[in-house]
Specification:
The structure holds 2 protein chains of 2 kinds. Chain A is built from 6 helices and no strands. By secondary structure, chain A is an all-alpha fold. Chain A is elongated and about 65 Å long. The termini of chain B are far apart. The chains are: A mainly alpha, B mainly alpha. At the A-B interface, helix 1, helix 3 and helix 6 of A face helix 1, helix 2 and helix 3 of B.
Chain lengths: 216, 101
């Protein structure tokens, strides 16, 4: 039987059970990712509760329009990822490759916008460290906000870069006819990963960009 | 896979459209002073709604087995334990200024 058939390893009763086990395994991994990002969200919450005004003031130095556009770009990439998975489930090779590449392009657009935002923050001396300079009150608490900003968006961006690498392997494997309507689990699981990274951003966006707009 | 639920493009597009609308709503609402912590609460409620749509439809959880539901729920349940127990300590400390001194 070829690589793309519904073969299953000997420890499974059938391909369906193997498929279910793969999904459960992926969700266990994603649960560890929830914990990983959860620690940073918890730290953020504690310091925001301690310095609410400073967090609101520092948040207003972020570019809300770039943040909103990036949220839309990432949601769009989740949509194209869902369509790529759909193509793989139907065994439609060319649409799958097309949507995977579109997803990668949108991911690159997100990272490009993030890069310009980082560049501006470096120029404005908002990067925590010896060069940090802040024009408003409670500079030290604002520095804590920017520490969380760079740690959380940086860790999110790292996940995006890893996702781009994973999508590249999917494009190559799909082009080499490694998947079919009977076997496409890697496409589905990397799709889950991509959607999870999208969810992290869905929470990062309001918590980092939308803290103090109403107070301006 | 026979156990796959292939969803329609129409459904995916509807979810995508809803997510975009919610993104605009949350960005727009951020400029309106709702008073107190209502801005933060509304932003987080919208974020939870968006995440739920992604999990249920884009991630196919709505069509997954009950066992998958348990695995998905476990991750978020433990996150709630992490947040709730820690914040129960940190946020309640200032309620007792006399004790802390």
């Amino acid at each position: 039987m070829s690589d793309s058939g519904a073969i299953h390893a000997h420890q499974f009763d059938d391909a369906a059970q193997q498929h279910e086990a793969s999904w459960l395994g992926m969700w266990v991994f994603l649960a560890t990712e929830v914990m990983f990002f959860g620690g940073m969200f918890l730290g953020y919450t504690i310091y925001r509760a301690a310095y609410p005004e400073a967090f609101a003031g520092a948040s207003n130095h972020l570019d809300i329009w770039l943040g909103t556009i990036n949220t839309a770009v990432l949601i769009f990439s989740s949509f194209t990822m869902a369509l790529a998975v759909r193509g793989a489930q139907l065994g439609a090779r060319k649409p799958t490759i097309g949507f995977l590449i579109l997803t990668m392009i949108l991911g690159a657009v997100f990272l490009g916008i993030k890069f310009t935002e980082y560049y501006a923050k470096f120029e404005e001396h908002f990067v925590p460290g010896s060069a940090f300079a802040y024009p408003g009150p409670q500079a030290h608490a604002a520095e804590i906000f920017f520490s969380f900003y760079f740690a959380m968006t940086g860790m999110h961006a790292l996940h995006m870069i890893i996702g781009e690498g994973l999508l590249t392997t999917l494009v190559v494997k799909t082009a080499r006819r490694r998947f079919s309507a009977l076997y496409n689990t890697p496409v589905e699981l990397i799709g889950l990963y991509w959607h999870f990274v999208d969810i992290v951003w869905i929470f990062l966006f309001p918590l980092l960009y939308l803290v103090g707009r109403h107070l301006q | 896979m026979s156990s796959d639920h292939v969803l329609s493009v129409k459904l995916y597009a509807a979810i995508f459209g809803t997510l975009l609308v919610l993104t605009l709503v949350t960005a727009g609402a951020a400029f309106i002073d709702l008073g107190g912590n209502l801005n933060t609460i509304l932003a987080l409620l919208i974020a939870c709604g968006k995440a739920l749509l992604v999990i249920l439809f884009f991630m196919h959880v709505r069509y997954s087995s009950r066992l998958t539901w348990v695995f998905v729920g476990a991750g978020f349940f433990w996150l709630m334990i992490l947040l709730a127990l820690t914040l129960a300590d940190v946020l309640s400390r200032r309620w007792l200024p006399a004790v802390i001194g």
